[in-house]
Amino acid sequence: AQKITQTQPGMFVQEKEAVTLDCTYDTSDPSYGLFWYKQPSSGEMIFLIYQGSYDQQNATEGRYSLNFQKARKSANLVISASQLGDSAMYFCAMREGKGGGSNYKLTFGKGTLLTVNP
Amino acid sequence: ETGVTQTPRHLVMGMTNKKSLKCEQHLGHNAMYWYKQSAKKPLELMFVYNFKEQTENNSVPSRFSPECPNSSHLFLHLHTLQPEDSALYLCASSETGRGYTFGSGTRLTVV
Predict the structure, then answer these.
(1) What pLDDT, on the 0 to 100 scale, is given for residue A101?
(2) Model pLDDT for residues A73-117, shown as the tens digit of each residue
(3) pLDDT (0 to 100) of residue B57
(4) What are phi and psi of B83, to 5 degrees?
(5) What pLDDT, on a 0 to 100 scale, did the predictor assign at position B40?
(6) Higher pLDDT, B54 or A4
(7) Rounded distance, CA B56 to CA B36, Å?
(8) SS3 label, residue B67
(9) How far apart are CA A39 and CA A91, in angstroms?
(10) Given an 8 Å threshold on Cβ–Cβ distance, is B94 in contact with A91?
(11) Rounded CA gap, A75 and B66, in Å?
């Protein structure tokens, strides 16, 4: 079974509008972390936002927010006021266990290609 | 500058060649990773090094040979590759449980 599922292969949004990218996850570990990364065509993976399983509030980082619904095991990324530079692949990822230390594994979804139209 | 530098950015090699990918991080992290990203597949973890010691080999074929001489440098030695090994190879480093820092990747084409 897939641990991270991103059901939207591609999404389109008009510039200045908000968009939600879906992510569901599967784990039996009570302690985990959820991440979103952006990958432009250049290839680099850029960290966007993090949500810990015990965090009480949804994470926010500038125009990015994470809609964390623990009971549904979903961690959707919301991008507000889309910009042309937001066009890229977006990956949801999960770390199982408490993390800490310096060595841990991330499991990635297949990604969603977001295109922002002018 | 992301703090993780990968060279070369692009590499074309024949199936009988031997080449190496290099990764260098300037962040003081103690763990480094190699990931493979093929078209239309999730990122696949290949190797993990923690304090220069290999802690994970994710059933990677022996034609891929990693080397970690110190906590700042990570290499991936390639020999007798197959065309299906063509992919983007990403290096990452980490220190805490909150996220990796990735390099820009090496786009490898095996002909």
Answers:
(1) 59
(2) 999 999 999 999 999 999 999 988 766 555 678 899 999 999 999
(3) 84
(4) -55, -30
(5) 74
(6) A4
(7) 14
(8) strand
(9) 8
(10) no
(11) 34
Structure tokens at B103: 């390099």
Chain A residues close to B34, C-beta within 8 Å: none
DSSP state of A1: -
Nearest chain B alpha carbon to A106: B45
Which residue(s) pair with A89 in the sheet? A39, A113
Distance separating the N- and C-terminal Cα atoms of chain B? 31
Q: Which of chain B's residues have a Cβ under 8 Å away from the Cβ of A107? A: 42
Strand partners, B53: B50
Give the span between the Cα atoms of A116 and A15, in whole angstroms: 6
Amino acid letter at A63?
R
Structure tokens at B64: 């891929």
- Cβ neighbours around B106 below 10 Å, total: 23
Residues (pLDDT < 50) of chain B are none
Higher-confidence residue of A60 and B31: namely A60
